[in-house]
Amino acid sequence: MKHWIERIADELKEWNVEKHVIASGTSISGSIHIGNSCDVFIANAVGKQLKEMGEKSETIWIADDHDPLRKVPHPLPESYDKYLGMPYSNIPCPDGCCDSFVEHFEKPLLDVLDDFGIELTPKSGFEMYKDGIYDEYIRISLKKADKIREIFNRYREHPLADDWLPYNPICDKCGRVNTTTSYAFNEDNDTISYKCECGADAEMNITSGNGKLTWRVEWAARWKIFGITCEPFGKDHAASGGSYDVSKIISEEIFDYKAPYPVPYEWITLNGDAMSKSKGVFFTPKQWLEIGPAESLNYFIFRSKPMKHKDFSPNMAFLDFIDQFDKVEKVFFNEEEAPSEKEGKKFKKIYEIAQINEGDSLPFRPPYRFLTVAYQIAGNNPEKIFEILKKNSQLTKSFQDKEFKDLEEKELEQFKQRIKQVKNWLDKYGPKFVKFQVMKKIPRLELSDDQKAFLKSLADLIESKEFNSAETLHDEMYEILNEYDLKPQKAFQAIYKMILGQKQGPKAASFLLSLDKDFVVKRLRMEE
Asked: Per the record's keyword annotation, is Ligase included, yes or no (predicted)?
């Protein structure tokens, strides 16, 4: 069984090249989220796989930072609309915290690359133009404009104008790049004549860096510049007659270069909605690290084929997702049995691709869902939380015989990280019904006589017997409520009312076992 990343690497290995260059690219038009950073994660995985196969490989990331601003990104003020049409590279930082607009939005991604085990060489489109790297390709494109125009027109309903040129200068008057149209090129002095919607009619030198090739020509040019052999990209570029189809022809017929191996991927939606930088609907890799381990984002991306729809929710659905991730991780380290042999092989292969720091031992990541309860009981006290986990049989076989003091430094750090992630999830995404607080004083809430009798009998039971599992206590609780002919809902409401001051809470049996025994007995007897 091979993962799709391995199959891509197998096919690339057959290419007759000295070195593979896997490219990724991102438009710096606002916050870089888990949707448009898929390029980076997939490219890194392919490059890593090629290296493991003994191939020379480099992964690069090109910041499309010379493109025009088309929409004001969230959370910038509307006043930023004065920069619409200007290249990102010429726009100031919105908060004054960075040297530029570009640095402000690319820094949060670059800062977490190490956390995700991503190794890449960053490139800047703006710097490539300023440094003259594109100059020769601009000349070639302008000289062969008729041929490029013919290629474009194969896929257009309305043909381009006869004097259209594949280059947009930055207007010297208004500073915009998406409002200019080039109409003449002087080969002798590298100057281009252009008009702008602002009324300007001027010339500029293409070696100044104050302009850019039209996207599909630029994309093909940089394939040859860097010797790119593989590139992931969003499904919009992969549409029939779209960017990749056109750029592939330009690459081969204009620049005499074989187009790279394409890896198109489906968009990631957020709670069912398309991610949008301008509307503020997005979730970043940095935000992911606040609530989950880095490997879990890799797992999210690599557990299914790239063109399969993926929806992410940081809300309650995240608990189900992290349960699945933990299961796969435990199967990989032989801590748990997979549902079947086939599933076991699948789990191990996906985790192998998602794994960041190879190791021979299971990271200490106790059940996330249970920790949402334990944390609210014990607070930020790792030792007390560990005791609650142990009391409730929530430790896997590698840890169930350990005491808190036996945890190695690395395991303790992993434990603290997960506790912090759980806290962040509760603070930012946990719905009200999962949150609770143990009341220091007995709440003055009304109970029926049957509920009071049930609580007293339950207190007697917990005082007189040691319970090694929540299941056993749960079963005996049902025996008591049946004695009083009390419906489960009413019985459990009585528990939650006395301890939490509300009608609902976490699973009652494990919750009671997580609390101090003397406290529980006194509270159920309504003793201060």
From this structure: yes
